[in-house]
Amino acid sequence: MTRLLSPGALRVLAAYGAAVLLFIIGALVHPGFASFSSVTSILLIASFVGLVAAGQCFVILIGGIDLSVPWVLNAAAILVATASLGENARAPYALALTLGMGAGAGVVNGACIVWLGVPAVVMTLAMSGIVEGLALGLSGGMTCAACASYAPPIVRDAVHGVFLGVPAALWLWLVVILVVSFVLSFTRFGRATYAIGNNPRAAFLAGVNVNLTTVALYALSGFFSALAGILLVGFGGQASLGMGAPYLFQSIAAVVIGGVSILGGRGNYLGAAAGSVSLVALVSVLLALNMPDYGRSIIYGLVILALLLLYGREEREQ
Amino acid sequence: MNSVPRETPALLPSGVPEDGPAPRRRPIAVHLIGQNIGLILALAILGLSLIIFVGLFAFEQHRLPGNFEVTSSVNNTMPLALAACGQTLVVLTRGIDLSVGGVVDLTNALAAIFLAGSVLHMIIVSVLILLVGAAAGLVNGLVVGLGRLQPIVVTLATLSIFQGLAIRALPQPGGVVPTGYTAVLVNPNVPTALLFVVLAVLGWMALRRSRLGVAIFAVGNDEQSAVALGIRAVRTKIIAYTLAGTLYAAAGLFLAANATSGDATTGDVYTLTSIVAVVLGGVSLFGGRGSAVGAICGAFITTMIVNILFYAHINPLYQSFYEGLFLVIAVVLGSAVGSFARRGR
After folding, report:
1. Tens of pLDDT along chain B (345 residues)?
2. Separation between Cα atoms, residue A26 and residue A32, nearest integer Å
3. How near does any CA of chain A get to the CA of B1, in Å?
4. What does the H/E/C string look like for chain A?
């Protein structure tokens, strides 16, 4: 059967359609919901989810998963504030340190998964604990003198600053979307990622360095978690404990809504980015409807289940 | 099983083995060790952690751990031990259940709201709460089994749903669990809760030998082969998730009994800790290998680690650091010893 669009492309379109639909519903229930400022602020919040989802997307594409997101993100937020002490002069050092910490945690994840044979779920879960313990212990439970530091102005400007009428963080996200999509679609590395996700053995026999690619992908996931942590500090001003907690669920959900197969090998970041927007738009609509916390939680789960059933059925029909 | 002599098929001339050379027979003891290496390792780690704990305790307090220490350790471990048993059933089918926390939250909240009353009332409410857990598990099982979807994302979604329901049921921590109920489940003076551990172990042994138990292992090892051999894989999965949900509900009841009140968020931790306990207990995340007894050991190991860290005067802020480190080391050592023990088969 010939189709105009591949099922994968259809899913990405569906994720974008869902986002647009949610904005329309929002505008109907709450006038002003689809105004320019409202849309940009929703997109800004979606960009944090989207950045974490970029990392999650990389590892899910090879059939892995990164459960260390919450605390890598949180530790990054604490580290960037405490290392920079809120000063621009120290910002480059703090940023390099923080992004390096994120990538380093990812490298350890990947190395233990590849060379020690620890299942990804266990390894990243343990890493979350390890980073949590270090973040809590070293900061004295966020009681250290430097813990009250604000993000350096340069980081705050990178989030709130407006460039061509749009918050700077959105431009950053756009660049990430373009780069990640390009890497996945047009580079050796991207091809290797899909190959490993489809069949690691075949990929190995085809000459892909499976081990190093896997380590690099987990490093990227850690890197993006750290980047999201930095931007969140820039957004909110200060770091706090537990700020990473929602991002595990949201990043996986965004990737799944975006049509990336949790088994790996199928999907792309364009979909995951759309998934992030739909997810945040959904929350915003529910907030506009004055939906209490528990209702949002339930609807969240139901929407993801419904999408899974929809996508899953399509997959079986092929 | 091994001692049953093989019959030579009538179609083949006598003396010709039907599939190549006859398998090398290994001593029963070696075979049993190879088959149960995960459980043996879990018991060894538990023994080791107990020895370290007793040593530290004796050094600090100049006496051996008494009734109080044993009772509180057992009572604090009960919810995790039960949740880990449930997680084991799911993991054995090559699944994973992230909704544990949500089900424990929900049942814990319901227990705190509805339990207070006469003895008969408490029994009926307890049974109903177990049924709520079973229903939650059934939902997981139906979506995973009939929808043929990945357990990790399905249970991630249902986790959110169950957490929402729990907060709807009990928005603020509160409620009351009658002291009589607490005395029966987790007697604060005597470690009678160990009886429930024994019950769980007996239940596991019965399940392991039943048709269902065999089916669970078969589905986890190789679903297609299991189906080809006439095992109803979908039904097996649905039952496994449902039983698991019931066990999470039991965990929620024990949690409520131990805290004597309810909280719709305290159960959240059990999603991750139940996976940790299962992994420490030598249950393979790739399905088809492991034992609930190991998972119970894993639950007690996690409690022992917390106790050891406490008496070693380790800053509690670093607790999860050591727990994470220990988890990785245990898994790496476990798989190294496991592959060594199975070598040559």
Report:
1. 344 444 444 444 444 445 555 556 667 777 777 777 888 888 888 998 889 888 888 888 888 888 888 888 888 899 999 999 999 999 999 999 999 999 999 999 999 988 888 888 889 999 999 999 999 999 999 999 988 888 988 998 999 999 999 999 988 888 888 888 888 888 888 888 889 999 999 999 999 999 999 999 999 998 889 999 989 999 999 999 999 999 999 999 999 988 888 888 888 889 888 998 998 898 888 888 889 999 999 999 998 988 888 888 888 888 888 888 888 888 888 778 777 776 654
2. 9
3. 32
4. CCCCCCHHHHHHHHHHHHHHHHHHHHHHHCCCCCCHHHHHHHHHHHHHHHHHHHHHHHHHHCCCCCCCHHHHHHHHHHHHHHHHCCCCCCHHHHHHHHHHHHHHHHHHHHHHHHHCCCCHHHHHHHHHHHHHHHHHHHCCCCCCHHHHCCCCHHHHHHHHCEECCEEHHHHHHHHHHHHHHHHHHHCHHHHHHHHHHHCHHHHHHCCCCHHHHHHHHHHHHHHHHHHHHHHHHHHHCCCCCCCCHHHHHHHHHHHHHCCCCCCCCCCCHHHHHHHHHHHHHHHHHHHHCCCCHHHHHHHHHHHHHHHHHHHHHHHHHC
B192 touches chain A (CB under 8 A): no
Mutation target to probe the B interface, by most B beta carbons within 10 A, among A67, A74, A108, A132 is A132
Whether A99 and A227 have beta carbons less than 8 Å apart is answered as yes
pTM over 0.90: no
**What does the buried/exposed string (b/e) look like for A245-279 if buried means 16 or more CB atoms within 10 Å of the residue's CB?**
eebbbbbbbbbbbbbbbbebbbbbbbbbbbbbbbb
Output Rg (C-alpha) for chain A, integer angstroms.
19
Among B163, B272, B320, the residue with its CB nearest the CB of A297 is B163
Query: Which residues of chain B make contact with A132, given a CB cutoff of 8 A?
Result: 320-321, 324
Residue B285's CB is within 10 A of a number of other CB atoms, namely 19
CB pairs under 8 A between A and B: 142
Which one-letter DSSP state was computed for residue B6?
P
Q: How far is B323 from chain A (nearest CA, A)?
A: 7
Q: Do B149 and A300 touch (CB under 8 A)?
A: no
Q: CB distance A116–B332 less than 8 Å?
A: yes
Q: Do B161 and A116 touch (CB under 8 A)?
A: no
Reported as type and span, the H/E element at residue B173 is none
Closest CB from A132, A296, A298 relative to B320? A132
Angle at which helices A168-186 and A210-236 cross, to 10°: 170
Hey, are the CB atoms on B324 and A129 less than 8 Å from each other? yes
The architecture that CATH gives domain A7-317 is: Orthogonal Bundle (1.10)
Contact B159 A301 (CB under 8 A): yes
In B263-302, the residues whose Cβ lies within 8 Å of chain A are 272, 275-276, 279, 285-286
Sort out which chain A residues have CB atoms less than 8 A from B320's CB and list them.
Answer: 129-130, 132-133, 136
- A301 CB neighbours in chain B (<8 A) are 157-162, 164
Q: What residue in B sits closest to A143 (Cα-Cα)?
A: B317
* CB nearest to A301's CB, from B164, B286, B318: B164
Asked if the Cβ–Cβ distance from A137 to B321 is below 8 Å, we say yes
Domain boundaries, chain A: 7-317
C-beta atoms of A137 and B279 within 8 A = no
List all residues 6 or more positions away from A64 whose beta carbon is below 8 Å from its beta carbon: A113, A120, A214, A217, A218, A264
